[in-house]
Amino acid sequence: MPHAPDIPAQHQDAMPADEHRMDPAPDYEPRFPGVGKLQGKVALITGGDSGIGRAVSVLFAREGARIGIVYLREDRDAETTRQLVEREGSEALLIKGDIGEKGFATKAVASTVEAFGGLDILVNNAAQQYFSNDLTEIDEQQIRRTFDSNVMGYFFMTQAALEHLSEGDAIINTASVNAFKGNPVLVDYSSTRGAITAFSRSMALQLLDRGIRVNCVAPGPIWTPFIPGSMPPDKVEGFGANAPMGRAGQPWEVATSYLFLATQESNYFTGQTLHPNGGKIVGS
């Protein structure tokens, strides 16, 4: 069992938060040599600047994909991820903006296609979450912001991508363990992840005849900028210790699920959800 790094109390007054300010730094590094599983492919990854999105970007690049990286405003983290993709011998295009705006989502897809000549894999991963103990205290602006990012953005990105996807291509959506078990302090966030689970299953059925597979990844407690950006310092300290494995997961441990779903190794998977959550048993 991997050692659980000590996670001290910390907080950032931003959502999304910054990976370069986290202590300890999340572990995004792939563990195995690439074998060309995504050679010649183009992937567009929202929230690709940090956290799970960074780990997926680096892993996909190691396997040969060129990467479009969509991010909201984290310029320093995004530039680091671009350099990491290039370190793997691939190319990255940074695309800054808000996927909750349909015009930007359309532009992000168009920019990726123009830069790399096509699109084969869409990873809808960008999201926001806010900690609240009382539903009545969640203001309308927060609810709309969370749903714009976590639901509307996925709809808009998928609508734009479908013009370019064809048989054998893949859409992978990020959900959460909270969609299955609920979370009393993340009610609006958990609701959006439930919506994305249903969206993924519905789109999988709609796209069967086109041969485009749509699947979900529902991570558990993963050490990403989500955590110091949304939780009080005392809740961040020791984060993940309550998971069955006794520790938070690292982004690289989740990225492998996305790689599986992006390749033909998962050819008989559509409408499904993978659960890298440290051993929490949930209904799928």
TrEMBL record:
<dbReference type="Pfam" id="PF13561">
    <property type="entry name" value="adh_short_C2"/>
</dbReference>
<dbReference type="GO" id="GO:0016614">
    <property type="term" value="F:oxidoreductase activity, acting on CH-OH group of donors"/>
</dbReference>
<keyword id="KW-0560">Oxidoreductase</keyword>
<comment type="similarity">
    <text>Belongs to the short-chain dehydrogenases/reductases (SDR) family.</text>
</comment>
<feature type="region of interest" description="Disordered">
    <location>
        <begin position="1"/>
        <end position="29"/>
    </location>
</feature>
<feature type="compositionally biased region" description="Basic and acidic residues">
    <location>
        <begin position="17"/>
        <end position="29"/>
    </location>
</feature>
<dbReference type="InterPro" id="IPR002347">
    <property type="entry name" value="SDR_fam"/>
</dbReference>
<dbReference type="InterPro" id="IPR036291">
    <property type="entry name" value="NAD(P)-bd_dom_sf"/>
</dbReference>
<protein>
    <submittedName>
        <fullName>SDR family oxidoreductase</fullName>
    </submittedName>
</protein>
